[in-house]
Amino acid sequence: MKRILPPLNALRAFEAAGRLGSFKEAAAALHVTHGAVSQHVRLLEAWLGASLFERHNRRVTLTPAARAYLEQIGPLFEQLAQATAQYGVPEALSRTLSVNAPATFTLRWLVPRLAKFRAGHPDVEVNVETSNGPLESLKENYDVIIRGGPDTFYGYAMRPFLSEERLPVCSPALLERVPLRAPGDLRHHTLLHTSSLPRLWPDWLASVRMPALRPAASLTFDHFYLSLQAAVDGIGIAMGPTALVADDLAAGRLVTPFTGPRLASRSYCTYVADAKSGDERVALFRSWLESEGMDA
């Protein structure tokens, strides 16, 4: 009896988009373009003669019939992956370690150190994706997830590797233009804020008993790394996380005008699913992070 099968690439795109609820995320998971996923889905819709998704602004949702279809074919993809694993995985894929980490941490701490890991472990390919969302919102099956902590998540093993505090930082050139000898002198400066952490400056000013201090100006950014870059460029004074500005302090790009007080902050931790705890690549990467964290 002849098998009637839909276009398999189109079926793969549909499964990923339906599972993730996004053409963009499906494209990232499949390592293709957003347009390729859309084209494959349209091809499958034409082949089936039915609409599969309801398109919204940033997300897509399955039609009731498509959801039932996905519930039937989804387990088949998992069975296919398991059956294929019995015969080995291509070498390039077996060496790839997928990591998800916050953007500012990745840019200012992880990326400058990755060359050291690659030099010590040239057989391990590291694929880093950035996200600031909570761990439970991630839809990809990452090998190592880096987030603040320590927190407890069911099914995940947590290990801290890097601690930090927060205190004001600025460029030495800024201090040459406008001296900063005491916290009260902040009224002559621009304070740099991050929208996701609005309490940093108010909490620090409260700790020096100047909660009502009004700076000469304030500037707010939507990402922490932008406020830190603005500090390096001499635009103003940022609340710098010690771990993420350590390299800038050592190089003289930033200075700490005050020795304290320092605000307590959460540690950086690795979260690894229990099913991946025995993976040698995961163990190597976690141990390397912990070694680097001790040296920071």
UniProtKB/TrEMBL annotation:
SUPFAM superfamilies linked: Periplasmic binding protein-like II, Winged helix' DNA-binding domain
Secretion signal, residue range per the UniProt entry: none
InterPro entries cross-referenced by the UniProt entry: LysR-type_TF_proteobact-type (IPR058163), LysR_HTH_N (IPR000847), LysR_subst-bd (IPR005119), WH-like_DNA-bd_sf (IPR036388), WH_DNA-bd_sf (IPR036390)
GO terms of molecular function: DNA-binding transcription factor activity; sequence-specific DNA binding
Pfam families: HTH_1, LysR_substrate
Keywords, alphabetical: DNA-binding, Transcription, Transcription regulation
Keyword DNA-binding listed: yes
GO BP annotations, alphabetical order: DNA-templated transcription
Annotated ranges, domain HTH lysR-type: 6-63
Entry's family note: Belongs to the LysR transcriptional regulatory family.
Protein name: Transcriptional regulator GcvA
Organism listed in the record: Paraburkholderia antibiotica
Encoding gene per record: gcvA
